[in-house]
Amino acid sequence: MKLIHMTDTHLTTPGRTIFGRDPLLNFERALDHVAASHSDAELMVISGDLSDLGDLADYQWLRERLSRFPIPVRLCIGNHDNRQTFLSVFPECSDAAGFVQGVHDASFGRCLLLDTYEPRSAAGTYCERRQAWLERQLSEHDGPFFLFMHHNPFPTHIRLVDRIGLIDDTRFRSIIAKYRSKIRHIFFGHCHFALSGSVAGVPTTSLRGTNHASYPLFAEVLAVADLPEAYGVTFIGADYVTVHMVEFGYRGDIVIEE
Length: 258
Ligand SMILES: [Fe+2]
Ligand SMILES: [Fe+2]
Hints:
Layout: E1 2-6, H1 23-37, E2 43-47, H2 56-66, E3 73-76, H3 83-89, E4 102-106, E5 109-113, H4 128-140, E6 145-148, H5 159-162, H6 169-178, E7 183-187, E8 195-199, E9 202-206, E10 213-215, E11 223-225, E12 231-236, E13 241-246
Helix pairs in contact: 2-3
């Protein structure tokens, strides 16, 4: 089974660039790349920072664009998004409490889309109401589960990145620990660089976004670098999960070995 993970599309007004890159153009390139190489994927998830400024027009554009995309897509929101504005265009993404949380049953397992958005904050939160939703989901089904979220569920040990991480990550990890045997993988975004690890023994993966890229400098700065735009391709077998980061924005040669 094949799954596509995209993140941090940062869609914005046509013609506006972010760190010299055009998010709409790069998102189109990413979609074309996926459609050309992975049209057999069962699902694509975009893990937040869908819009750069949370503008209504970005979500309207996204909805229209995804309606012409051949693979089913599920969405998370990130700190750059605006929950209310997003839900005005994607009302079906709301849970009963008004968070952008949902369930998607795929052939490989049950996907949970989590909402780590906190209004007017670059950092994320996972409040008690959302924790209760997650616990309910994890306790009421046998799984296996695949989780998707925007903010990193563990510290990066890059101080300025961790200042905008998930505030209540310890509590979040304790929920994961309780149900770890049912959860096969956690996918997240937000950091704009490749990152993997585990939460309570559950493997996690993040990757560069489809537009601007960060660089993990372990210093008192946030660093942006001219690294290729990327998306993820995941293969899920009965007893393995393989995660690739595909650098669709790579501008150099690719030599075919004879
Ligand atoms: Fe982002
Ligand atoms: Fe973010």
